[in-house]
């Protein structure tokens, strides 16, 4: 085995040379070396990537976001191990990985699968997103295209946590409305999923525009897909861990703030009402709102938004024109976010 070490721009690359295929599986990973469960986490990750590589046949790039990984710890499985000395967050890790894979002509990157390394999704579902990205791009890596793995598909083989079903289904309907407002199909609803694939052309477009923070990268990839006119589709996953019944406020903030980072471009494309709505959500979250919900009335009527802060209940109204433009549907659904305490 030949190991090549390349230094530059704050990270180092250790690469196993000699692979002819041009499609890659890219997995960012972080485990705190100071925590007691570090060795176990790295061991589980090593098994996960070995199985993933075996069943996909893809070249494997691991982006170590400050975990102190070495080829030996990973059983020499990765074809490329990119090490970021200090934890900088997932969005930065994805950008570093794309920069490494795209900017070396010898790679001739074709298709790329981006997968979380926390065990949230199973290795056996990777071929599902692989197949779908080839399908919607017609096998041409120069067509901008993005596929997102749906963790709530009807093909799940693991029963979801019953307590989270109503909460998550409400979010999915809301997220589907946002996707539709961006010009995508409403079935593109689980756009924060960590399982996804895209073409070389889309990877270049995203890397040129990306500026999101730690947890905003998946949302940003959806927004960029809208701005560059990429084909976007979903791939049903069969395995996903039981979902929580609430979501950290910080994660909501970092995802919703992505829209504000692209405010001018979105407004130029007639998405101003979406930016306004998301901006209001960001302001409420910054005030540490404990809970809010949206019960959508029939199309054309005012929609009430109720929220609670420090025990006090508030009501806000979404004007009919916002309601009609953003939620173009006759269906009613509740939307609730609870802050973890």
TrEMBL record:
UniProt-listed GO biological process terms: protein N-linked glycosylation
Signal peptide: none
Organism: Candidatus Woesebacteria bacterium RIFCSPHIGHO2_02_FULL_39_13
InterPro entries assigned: Nucleotide-diphossugar_trans (IPR029044)
Name by which UniProt lists this protein: Glycosyltransferase 2-like domain-containing protein
Transmembrane segments: none
PANTHER family xref list: DOLICHYL-PHOSPHATE BETA-GLUCOSYLTRANSFERASE, GLYCOSYL TRANSFERASE
Superkingdom field: Bacteria
